[in-house]
Amino acid sequence: MTGWSAHDIPDQSGRVAVVTGANSGLGEVTARELARHGAKVVLACRDETRGRAAERRVKDRVPGADVRFAPLDLANLASVRDFAAAFPEHAGGDGEGRLDLLINNAGVMALPPRRTVDGFEMQFGTNHLGHFALTGLLLPFLLATRAGARVVTLSSGFHFLGCVDPRDLDMEHRYRRWIAYGRSKSANLLFTHELARRLTAAGTDILSVAAHPGYAATNLQTAGVRIEGRATAERVVEAANGIIGQSPERGALPTLYAATAPGVVQDGFYGPRNQVRGAPGRSLRARWTVNDRTSAGLWAVSERLTGVSYGLLEG
To answer: Which protein family is named in the record (predicted)?
Structure first.
């Protein structure tokens, strides 16, 4: 591969990172490479068994890595609040009180109809609302760090499937799994845009940026059909992963670039340069994801639904 690679990650010594969904795939690779370059990394995962297994794998691959599992279920707002309240303990030691990198990586894709603990459509509730609440609750630590702090939110090329519909956020009238996924990924980009606008207006130098992996072969693609027991569809997806998909190591590069590379710009969106695979660069983005009115509307709804306010950015 030509272009930017994990070898180009600047030294991260002394920095504290949170990676959601770090128990496998893109999240585990992201956490591992940040730790390899000196960061203290909190592996924020829903499943303790898988999270602790990922912690062991990272430590095996990167001797001396400072990584630790912490429980976080983005489909449960009480869990999000518990994680944020315990964050100084999770960060531990000299990391207490600071957060340099928040990587909003975890997500679900094209699931059959499901609801979060709080009653939201699962993809919108997990992919957007969970991360909206988490970022808001961790904002004091980001603001305390300031210099060089970044929030990186994972979106997808599938965001082009549709924008958020404020009249039917949960798609109660006609649920279509891929449209729901695309809308949740548009929500991720609208959140990135509105957070960037508010951070800039507040006079901070914290960056809010987004990334997507292109087509990376992970267990995300097979989760939905596996839940429904559709064995044939699962085999088709696995075959596509093998033919088209790039490895999680390559799929994680846009995230790592957005999190660490110099020259990353506020509200930037980074992915493979040909949109599917390859070295990271600026990515195509639907016009609706940079619409101030739409992003502000989604923000207001998200504050109401989660009960999390970003008052520190309002002076």
So the answer is: Belongs to the short-chain dehydrogenases/reductases (SDR) family.
